[in-house]
Write a structure and sequence with these properties.
Elements lengths: L1 E10 L12 E7 L2 E4 L10 E9 L6 E8 L7 E9 H5 L5 E8 L14 E9 L4 H10 L2 E2 L2 H4 L15 H12 L8 H9 L20 H10 L1 H4 L2 E2 L2 H9 L12 E8 L3 H9 L5 H9 L2 E5 L3 E3 L4 E10 L8 E12 L4 E8 L9 E11 L10 E11 L6 H26 L2 E2 L7 H7 L8 H9 L2 H19 L19 H29 L14 E11 L12 E7 L2 E4 L10 E11 L5 E8 L8 E9 L11 E4 L3 H6 L2 E10 L5 H13 L8 H11 L7 E10 L4 E8 L2 E8 L2 E8 L3 E7 L10 E6 L13 E2 L5 E6 L4 H15 L3 H26 L4 H13 L11 E8 L3 H5 L6 H9 L2 E6 L3 E2 L5 E10 L9 E10 L5 E11 L7 E11 L7 E11 L6 H31 L5
Antiparallel strand pairs: 1-4, 1-8, 2-3, 2-5, 4-9, 5-6, 7-8, 10-13, 11-18, 11-19, 12-14, 13-14, 14-15, 15-16, 16-17, 17-18, 20-23, 20-27, 21-22, 21-24, 24-25, 26-27, 28-29, 28-35, 29-30, 30-31, 32-33, 33-35, 34-35, 36-43, 37-39, 38-39, 39-40, 40-41, 41-42, 42-43
Length: about 1050
């Protein structure tokens, strides 16, 4: 007696990896017997379709089914599990639990509230197999399902449990009817030579006992058990309509190999009928053209309680130069038929072919609506993709795949030619690009302000306040004036009791809430304009994002809804959508374009916020990252993006986007980019051949627009040095090594690298300089197996050394990193450091050339020592602020200390995204420098410009105070490149009082270009700076007062 367990699929598996996905597999155990399913990569709704058999000796044993997430270099993560007592299955009437969805549970009781997902299983007893069957199952472990079972998985995703144990029984009946032929042919002997376990691989005549059976035999068994299957046949169109009424998968992904991808001038439902209708003669015409004989097309039938629509087609495939004529069986199953799109999965089995029982060929016919033709007619897109599904391991796998690839290509070339003779193909160039067609079809949803106001204010707070106000108004009309008493006088009527005080307080609070709602709504309507429709500028890589809709966005308002808007960020530029009031499933239909850039973008950051007024911190409803390197651009033309974050994952929020990335520069983009890099590197960069670029893309799984710039032989330093090759492109840096058959491969985005340092040669680096790349916290975990160390903040560090040409490699790496990863403030800092190093070098050369002239040398040294920071003495400085503050000098200097007070004050004066580097000692003693970066709030500058500045801190000569000098550069504002700002903060303690300090601020403007608006700009800068200084100093005094006396607010 054995227990059969079929693991079909799972849904809503929680994301266990940093990329927002999981690599789930199933582990089954009964006593000492253990099995494991295949791993489905990067999927939260995996499909396995595998069957396992357990020998049952004790009914008291417990079947444990666990779902785990595979982790290549660490312990696998536990997702959830479910347990079944064997006696529970045995005690049922038909010895079967049928097919049903089961909820996965956490391992510990503490995680009862954790959602672990669900799994679809079929569990039943089988007593019809012999002992030899059980032994063969024990030898081979787990067996894949036959073709008819594989095609069921996409259709078993309904919410209601399915109860049907007949598929297992039909397979058992078919398995028991198989005949065994003892005679072996030459192919069978050859199989035994290449495979040590001769019974594991079936030959042409000798078939091992296996759960996978020919489809023809299975269909015979199904027909014999017609009552159990509850199969019904009928009109083809009626069957399709019954499919439309059932739950359909949202999207069906193509299989890896695409052999047909063509537009046809025909509606999708008409093309579906032409290809798969029983009345169509296309299949028989194709068989005649390919030389196939004995074609038998079975009727379409609804099976499994009407959940799947299937038919069986058999024919004798014509002989080729390598393979004789073979009997072929096709199991055709509709996995999607919603009236607009159709998807048919075909499982092709050729059991008489050499090793035919070890594999199945899967074909997917996908019919989707195409763009509308200029004549107004509909078009359809037909995509046929395929893959090989190996049921058993075999050494002939490569040979089988190559032969199948060649045969499928030839067959579908004939298929496409015959189809083109019957239906007119459409050239996409004649009807415009897919992008233009899709974007032109989008219409922004317009809604009047009155309708939005009614929807927004129709809540309990507003309605109750209205009736309370009306009630009070009527009371005022009906009530008689009260007599003046207590402290009242004419015109002032105070509450006469505690109850009246409470009522007044309630009325004031209600009124305040309503006024806040009105103010919030009015300000949001003022800001209702988005970046939708703003055309991009420039030539290069143009990114276009169409925001269609959102689904299941988290509700954070008391009304049970949210006011969502979306912010897209790419290459440091942002685009913001409009605000949708009181929506959990908003529809935008807005289009955003990013200005063209020379380099293709790497990632697009997407974040959804809830609008909560212009002065409140926005609540994040979820975020996502679209990686253009790991994604195929064509797949992003219509995609649902799941959002990450606590709120988003709890609600399973997602966004519907259409993303397009086009190059408007033409074919010279690679040459132009290499020419630009040659100037940075200082060395000629060779243009690689298309074959080399194709091999590079295939090695790291990169999109076709990625091109190789250079590659270097080097060593990766981990516990032991690993010899390999470093590949550099515009967006990634990759490492590959194949040492004694052990392959190591990973790549990093330039944007993920926080710092690159060069370490002096050591014995450990074999006398070669060491390049150390430090990633940003939480980035690059897909490549953590190549990192040498990881610090406490989660930054990975990669060490490379032993370059053949270190100088060229270092210059190329630094040039590519600076071009892609550095922020404006980092670029300013590096330029300043390089210019400072050049100035020092030039000063040393000048001093050596003038060593004979002592007076000249002394003068030069004197000017160097007395010269102030960044040439401030050359600019006319004027006092813009001077005051004595009621704070100590040490407390005032905390504004420049890089602590909490520093950040709080800068945010109070309107500086967003404030970041700074630590104070570092400069070449002069007791002089320290740091770099700042922030953005202006809209209340400071309507252009919201960016600021990069360098500050220098030093003691005054009398040691009684400090001097802080600052050089500011403004970006993103009109005429911002015409000038620099120089500030000098002089802070001195007041001798008579230690709790006071004298602050004086001077301003100077260094004009880099002439402008006739200099006076106007100067006046604007001075007034704006004075206002900021007043806010900063008053805020400092309040902070000091609150710290010294916490009771004072």
């Amino acid at each position: 007696m054995k227990l059969l367990v079929r693991v079909i699929e799972a849904r809503n598996i929680p994301a266990m990896d940093p990329n927002g996905f999981s690599d789930p597999y199933v582990k089954l155990s009964l006593g000492k017997q253990k099995f494991r399913s295949k791993v489905v990569k990067k999927c939260l709704n995996p499909s396995w379709c595998e069957e396992f058999a357990f020998k049952v000796d004790d009914l008291k044993e417990e079947l444990i089914i666990s779902v785990l997430d595979e982790d290549k270099y660490f312990n696998d993560d536990f997702v959830g599990q479910i347990k079944f007592p064997v006696s529970q299955v045995f005690e049922t009437n038909d010895k079967s639990l049928g097919t049903a969805w089961y909820t996965l549970h956490p391992k510990h009781k503490k995680g009862k509230t954790k959602d672990c997902g669900q799994i679809l299983l079929t569990i039943c007893f089988s007593q019809g197999n012999t002992l030899a069957d059980l032994q063969s199952l024990g030898d081979h472990g787990s067996k894949k399902l036959s073709s008819d079972v594989v095609t069921e998985s996409p259709l078993l995703s309904s919410n209601a449990p399915l109860r049907s144990s007949s598929p297992l029984r039909s397979e058992e009946a078919a398995s028991s009817k198989e005949e065994k032929h003892p005679a072996q042919t030459f192919a069978g002997r050859l199989a035994q030579i290449f495979n040590k376990n001769g019974d594991a691989v079936s030959t042409t005549n000798a078939k091992a006992p296996d759960l996978t059976v020919p489809t023809e035999t299975a269909s015979t068994a199904i027909s014999e058990n017609a009552q159990e299957e509850q199969s019904t046949s009928g009109n083809f169109q009626e069957l399709l309509k019954s499919m439309e009424a059932r739950e359909q998968p949202s999207e069906v992904s193509n299989l890896p190999g695409v052999v047909v991808d063509q537009l046809y001038a025909i509606a999708p439902h008409e093309l579906n009928s032409f290809l798969f209708s029983p009345d169509s003669t296309f299949f028989k015409s194709l068989a005649d053209a390919q030389g196939s004989t004995d074609v038998r097309v079975g009727p379409w039938k609804l099976e499994n309680g009407g959940e799947s629509l299937k038919r069986v087609v058999t024919f004798i495939k014509a002989a080729s130069r390598l393979v004789r004529a073979l009997k072929t069986t096709e199991d055709q199953t509709y996995i999607k038929a919603d009236g607009k799109s159709f998807a048919v999965l075909v499982i092709v089995s050729t059991p008489d072919a050499p090793y035919g029982s070890t594999f199945r060929t899967e074909l997917l016919y996908s019919i989707t609506p195409g763009p509308e033709l200029p004549s107004g007619e509909q078009s359809s897109r037909l995509v046929v993709s395929w893959r090989m599904n190996f049921l058993q391991s075999t050494m002939m796998k490569g040979m089988i795949e190559n032969g199948a690839r060649q045969g499928i290509k030839e067959s579908f070339d004939q298929y496409a030619n015959l189809l083109s003779q019957n239906i007119k193909p459409v050239d996409a160039k004649d009807i415009g690009s897919e992008k233009e067609q899709i974007l032109a079809s989008l219409e922004v949803e317009h809604q009047s302000d009155w309708k939005l106001a009614v929807q927004y204010f129709a809540n309990f707070t507003v309605v109750s306040t209205f009736f309370i106000g009306l009630y009070v108004f009527v009371h005022v009309l009906l009530a008689m004036p009260s007599t003046i008493q207590g402290l009242e006088f004419v015109g002032l009527d105070l509450p006469d009791s505690i109850g009246e005080v409470i009522v007044c307080g309630v009325l004031v609070l209600q009124g305040k809430r309503v006024l806040e709602l009105i103010s919030r709504f009015m300000r949001a309507r003022v800001q209702k304009g988005s970046d939708h429709g703003i055309k991009a500028q420039g030539n290069g890589w143009l990114l276009t994002v169409a925001l269609i809709e959102g689904n299941n966005l988290a509700a954070v308002d008391s009304s049970g809804y949210s006011d969502p808007y979306v912010v897209f960020t790419c290459n440091g530029k942002s685009r913001t959508s409009s605000i949708k009031f009181q929506k959990s499933n908003p529809k935008w239909n807005e289009i955003f374009e990013f200005d063209a850039v020379d380099d293709p973008p790497s990632v697009l950051d997407v974040e959804v916020f809830d609008f909560d007024g212009p002065f409140s911190e926005a609540t994040s409803l979820g975020h996502a990252e679209i990686n253009f390197i790991k994604s195929n651009i064509s797949d992003l033309s219509d995609v649902w993006i799941p959002l990450q974050g606590k709120l988003a994952q709890a609600c399973q929020s997602k966004l519907h986007l259409r993303v397009f990335l086009n190059n408007t520069k033409g074919k010279n983009v690679v040459k132009d980019y290499l020419s630009k890099m040659e100037k940075e590197v200082g060395k000629k960069i060779k243009l690689r051949s298309p074959q080399t670029n194709s091999a590079f893309q295939k090695l790291f799984g990169l999109p076709p627009e990625e091109f190789l710039i250079n590659d270097f032989a080097c060593h990766l330093k981990r516990k032991m040095p690993l010899q390999g090759r470093l590949f550099l492109s515009a967006r990634i840096i990759g490492f590959h090594s194949d040492l004694f058959g052990h392959k190591t491969k990973f790549f990093l985005l330039w944007e993920d690298i926080e710092d690159i340092q060069v370490e002096s040669p050591t014995l450990a680096s074999m006398g070669s300089p060491n390049i150390i790349m430090t990633l940003k916290p939480g980035r690059g975990f897909d490549a953590r197996h190549g990192a040498k160390t990881q610090d406490k903040e989660g930054r990975l560090k990669f060490h490379f050394h032993s370059f053949v040409s270190f100088n060229v490699a270092n210059r190329t790496i630094m040039a590519l990193w600076k071009a892609r990863a550095l922020s404006p403030e980092q670029k300013v800092r590096i330029v300043e450091e390089e210019s400072e190093a050049k100035n020092i070098q030039m000063a040393e050369e000048d001093s050596m050339a003038e060593a004979a002239d002592d007076d000249s040398e002394g003068k030069s040294l004197h000017s160097e020592e007395s010269g102030s920071f960044m040439g401030v003495d050359d600019i006319n400085m004027s006092i813009v602020y001077s005051s004595v503050l009621s704070v100590p000098t040490e407390f005032f200097m905390e504004v420049f200390g890089g602590g909490e007070l520093d950040r709080k004050v800068m945010e109070r004066v309107g500086c967003l995204n404030y970041s700074y580097s630590p104070w570092e000692e400069s070449e002069k003693p007791d002089v320290y420098q740091r770099q700042l970066y922030y953005k202006f709030d809209k209340c400071i500058s309507r252009y919201r410009g960016e600021v990069t500045s360098t500050q220098q801190r030093s003691r005054l000569s009398d040691k009684n105070g400090w001097l802080i000098e600052e050089v500011m550069t403004l970006h993103g504002i009109p005429l911002g490149d015409f000038f620099n700002l120089r500030l000098a903060y002089q802070v001195e303690g007041v001798p008579s009082k230690s709790t006071r300090c004298n602050v004086q601020v001077q301003l100077g403007i260094a004009w880099l270009k002439y402008s006739r608006h200099q006076k106007r700009i100067t006046k604007n800068i001075v007034s704006n700076l004075q206002e900021r200084l007043l806010v900063m100093c008053s805020g400092l005094e309040k902070e000091y007062l609150s710290k010294s006396d916490p009771l004072v607010i």
